[in-house]
Design brief:
By secondary structure, this protein is mainly beta. It has one domain: Beta Barrel (Maltoporin, Chain A). It contains 5 helices and 31 strands. It has a 22-stranded antiparallel beta barrel. A 5-stranded mixed β-sheet has the order 3-8-9-6-7. Strands 1-2 form a two-stranded antiparallel ribbon. The longest helix has 12 residues. The chain is globular and about 75 Å long.
Length: about 600
């Protein structure tokens, strides 16, 4: 392990010798669609959004989609262990239920818990075109579950014919294999991917076996119209070890997720139909045998048109039907409908304002959520952004209908959670290589749903908590000819308005950094660090941690240049730190893996 760390340090310290003074332009992602539901340049979007392209993901050395998401400023991935465990996401102090997870615009959040496990994503990393992370209340476009933000995983469209194979082996007897093939012939194209990962785990009952299969088929009807079919399937069997204080050495769990969809695109009109079926079976003999089967059926349509010369109007509607059949909650159904309208006012290329509003109707009521944002650019180097928006989340099936077990019971009278959020930012380009951004935000949340213990010893969810969250974010990216540097700092001040106390177990400070380097001979090295300092209960010990990941790879030409190969070595937690992201659930110690990849 020391040898691996020393090798990374040697490469990084040697970088100046390779001519770092040769600068190139700092590249920006080409387009983003999640912020306005219209594909447009990211630099013209008024809301705070981060886009990670597939090229950046590869250069930074991420091995999973979860790792890529965790690198984004203001995002915290709450991991309960290795890839076989649960991993949920928080944005700016939100709960996982307040962050909407999408694949190509299709909802993944489960109505049973309101969350989605990032380790259950039914898509392979090699199939990702880009990941869009929209921070802040976004219910004006997406309705419920987008109270804290939106993460939209965009998959690749077929292009040039290419097939790639990858295999690796590492610590804890972890074996991974993946394959992707893509081709476009005339008006027809397809992308097919498969992934399998098996591990014995790093502590008792942390083994897992996961499969992901996904495919996309495109049919071009004309120059302005196409049909896209997609199918994604994920299966995972894992041990559930429990916490250190309450271990469950015999517990097992099976997870399945199947996502199917068809999209019709005619110029700026988009129709999207999809289904998401999820199955979960948890078994801890002789104590518990729980089964959950969830079905989501969704349909949404939108169109955009110019009104005059400066107003881009986008309007649409959505219907989502949710069904749960479980041993704990029973059979439950609900339907949600929503309509939205948005006006993007383009006064000049340097002054853009966006106003949007959405109306949603659901079984227990209705909600109106507006949003307003503006962008002003000065001399193409300085960009100011300001926005205000609202968000909400409806209670989950478990919140509403958990049966009376003698110690816990649901509450069918719960009200939706609601939030108001304000943010202001400035982005500055320094020369052609450095881009920096500073942002401040304020969020008020009311009617938060919290499970509370009553004097009778019964736990029940109630709308009692109100919170205020203030925060600042700094982000900088520096690009050279052969090297890319990124650094972000995030601070949030969270206050429970009912008690006047800080909200514990959420990050206070978060620093993230990544450096990647690539030579003309195909050698690539990346190193990423993450430091987190959390709020704790009064009188408790401080809770902070730091970990470091890295990867080294070398490209080689094969079969007289007819194929490309890659040999790689990657390390997780290479300093072998003992830490917990979620209290009571240790993270894996230092882990190494090595492998090969071939593309032809």
């Amino acid at each position: 392990m020391k040898t691996f760390v020393c090798l990374f340090c040697f490469i990084l310290l040697s970088l100046p010798a390779f001519g770092l003074a040769q600068e190139t332009s700092a590249t920006l992602p080409d387009v983003v669609v999640s912020a306005t539901k219209v594909e447009e340049p990211v630099q013209d979007v008024a809301q705070d959004v981060t886009v990670l392209t597939g090229q950046e993901i590869k250069k930074r050395g991420y091995s999973t989609i979860k790792d890529a998401i965790a690198s984004v400023m203001g995002v915290q991935v709450n991991e309960y262990g290795n890839r076989g465990s649960i991993a949920t996401v928080s944005i700016r102090g939100s709960s996982a239920e307040q962050v909407l997870i999408l694949i190509d615009g299709k909802r993944l959040n489960l109505p049973s818990t309101g969350q989605f496990d990032l380790n259950d994503l039914p898509v392979t990393l090699g199939d990702v075109e880009r990941i869009e992370v929209l921070r802040g209340a976004s219910s004006a476009l997406y309705g419920a579950d987008a109270m804290g933000g939106v993460i939209n995983i965009i998959t690749k469209n077929p292009d040039k014919p290419v097939t790639s194979l990858s295999t690796s082996y590492g610590s804890f007897d972890t074996r991974r294999f993946s394959a992707t093939t893509s081709r476009r012939v005339g008006v027809f194209g397809y992308v097919l991917s498969a992934e399998n990962e098996i591990s014995n785990g790093f502590r008792t009952n942390t083994d897992y076996d996961l499969w992901n299969l996904d495919g996309k088929v495109t049919l071009e009807l004309s120059n302005d119209a196409d049909v896209v079919f997609n199918a994604n399937y994920g299966h995972k069997e894992e041990g559930v070890p429990g916490s250190v204080d309450m271990p469950t050495p015999e517990a097992r769990q099976h997870d399945e997720n199947a996502l199917f969809g068809i999209a019709l695109n005619i110029e700026k009109m988009h129709l999207n139909l999809y289904s998401h079926d999820s199955r979960l079976h948890y078994l801890d003999p002789p104590f518990e045998d729980s089964y959950y089967r969830t079905g989501i059926r969704g349909a949404d349509i939108q169109d955009s048109f110019l009104l005059g010369s400066s107003n881009l109007i986008t309007a649409g509607g959505e219907i989502v039907s949710e069904r749960l059949n479980s041993t704990d909650v029973g059979i439950k159904n609900r339907t949600r409908e929503g309509v939205f309208a948005q006006d993007e006012l383009i006064f000049t290329e340097n002054l853009i304002a966006t106003a949007g509003i959405r109306y949603d109707n659901f079984d227990s009521g209705s909600q109106i959520t507006p949003r307003l944002s503006a962008l002003y650019r000065v001399f193409a180097k300085t960009t100011f952004r300001i926005s205000a928006g609202t968000g909400y989340r409806i209670p989950t099936f478990e919140d509403l209908y958990w049966p009376n077990t003698g110690y816990a019971v649901g509450n069918p009278n719960l009200r939706p959670e609601k939030s108001k959020e304000y943010e202001i930012s400035v982005e500055q380009m320094f020369g052609k290589s450095l881009t920096a951004k500073a942002l401040a935000f304020h969020k008020d949340v009311e009617d938060l749903i919290q499970w509370q213990e009553f004097p009778t010893g019964m736990w029940m969810p109630v709308n009692i908590e109100q919170a205020r969250i203030n925060g600042i974010e700094f982000d900088a990216n520096y690009a050279f000819k052969n090297i890319a540097l990124s650094l972000s700092y995030y601070y949030q001040d969270l206050k429970d308005e009912n008690t006047g106390q800080k909200i514990p177990y959420l990050p206070r400070h978060n620093v993230k950094g990544n450096v990647s380097y690539e030579t003309k001979t195909g050698l690539t090295a990346s190193l990423e660090g993450n430091y987190v300092s959390n709020y704790v209960m009064p009188g408790s010990q401080s809770w902070c941690y730091f970990y470091l990941n890295g990867k080294i790879s070398q490209r080689v030409a094969l079969f007289e240049g007819r194929a490309n190969g890659e040999i790689f070595l990657e390390g997780k937690n290479i300093l072998d730190r003992k830490f917990e992201v979620v209290q009571g659930y240790p993270m894996p110690p230092a882990a190494l893996s090595g492998g090969v990849r071939i593309a032809f």
